[in-house]
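JOB MANIFEST
job_type = single_chain_structure
chain_count = 1
residues = 368
[input]
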Amino acid sequence: MLVFLRLLFACLFLLPAVAQANTIRLKDLVEFDGVRGNDLVGYGLVVGLDGTGDGLRNSPFTEEIMSNILERLGVNVTGEQFRPKNVAAVFVTATLPPFARVGSTIDVTVSAIGDSKSLLGGTLIMTPLNAADGQIYAVSQGTILAGGAVAEGDAARVTQGVPTAGVIPSGARVEREIGFDLSSLSSMRLALREPDFTTAGRIERAINDEFGRNVALMKDSGTVEVDVKRTNTRSTAHAVGRIENILVEPQRKARVVVDQRSGTIVMGSDVRISRVAVAQGNLTLRIEETPLVVQPNPFANGETVVVPRTGAAIEEEEGVQLAEVPETTSLSEVVAGLNALGVSPRDMIDILKSLKAAGALHAEFVVR
């Protein structure tokens, strides 16, 4: 009896953990209205390359920006002919995070736009970064960390990774702030990353339970509006801090995602298959051309001709005979039923397409 009671108490303690096994924090399911980043882009010059820069005859914009920089530094290069091989024109991109303050730093990505072979070891010269409104919000400068390498000789060249792109950690300093006052919001909308009416309803109930009153209202499958004043918190930021850590169990659509290039197949746990019969086989058609050259006899009057010879054959490989896939109620049963056919992942993609066309695959089918 004592052992039974211990097992009972252990199960009672495990029940809350099992119940919350599939719950996710609200911050991982939604985007808060106004709390977002902004894309930045700039056009600059990388120097210090080891002879892997732009060919200025093919990239005249590199020479133009180099001339502008030198003239701003007081060096007159008007009418001069210079053809350095250690500079490259680049685009610099970054994302200005929400509530970034003046003086803080952000990471930047540098990508060559000319015919430069590598940015390895280069240094980005001071480059202003503009947003969509045309204003400068950050300035970037620093040494580039390229993620590739190039080795070449007179007759061969080997490239590993992408040496014409790199990053500069903390390579830009914020010079202008985004004019957004979070504390002035009387209400805030939560935008679901994957709109779903069931998930939105659960978010509404979870927020209302957290504050003990009706402060959240589901507007549609992708929006839940929160009345910040009714939360009775010190500020909007305090309300967001409480809301973003609420645990909610999302409801997602059954989905099958396949990548035809790599043969990857990913299935959600809610995928179901109706009872269906499947047969699969491979048919190969081969045509080979083996032309024969016919020459005349020595000292004979004649011409050399090419006689075409074509060999054609059709081969049918042994495939999966008509097999029955039973109706399934779980992902493990779906996988077991499809694996029982003994086909390769690429053939499995074709079978899944056919199952969807036949109406036996009850899930959204996404091909990438």
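[summary]
The longest strand covers residues 310-325.
The chain has six helices and 24 strands.
exit_status = 0
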